[in-house]
Amino acid sequence: MPKGIYDRAPSAWKPKPKKDYDPALVEKVRELYAAGHTMREIAELAGTTVKILQRLMPRHGITRRTAAKRDQAGERNHMWRGGEAKYQALHLRVETARGKPQRCSCCDTDDPNGKYEWANLSGHYADIHDYARLCIPCHRRLDARRRAVTGQRTMPPKGGEGDV
Ligand SMILES: [Zn+2]
After folding, report:
1. What spacing in Å lies between the alpha carbon of 112 and ligand 1's midpoint?
2. pLDDT single digits (tens) 56-67
3. How many A from CA of 1 to the centre of ligand 1?
């Protein structure tokens, strides 16, 4: 009999409790998901990771949408043939022509510590005037609404489960 094996505190034998997620985080994730945000966006907006979401969501009964419809729409959408690189190049073109956004035209935030992006408005990605300055939360909200209406991607597919 190996020495010392019976000396452990009784607590050492208890099964480890399942990791509990912060209820505030769970609610935020539920809300963002219902609003049509993608996993990537929820992770960004809730300050977590897609990996954590993939465990948190089924545990809290947040049912995943099926990816099929949107993925097909994405593949049909010629815009995304060049993938992430093309998407970034188009946004960079806007930045070169119109400058780096420093405020949000939706909620009027101009906090110098905030992050702002050029948000495409109606799918004319090549038109540098089809973009508005938005803060990250407003940009993600806009994209989610547009996807809900058009059923089309607003970002190129990145691959992997986390893109649903
Ligand atoms: Zn805003």
Report:
1. 13
2. 999 998 887 665
3. 66
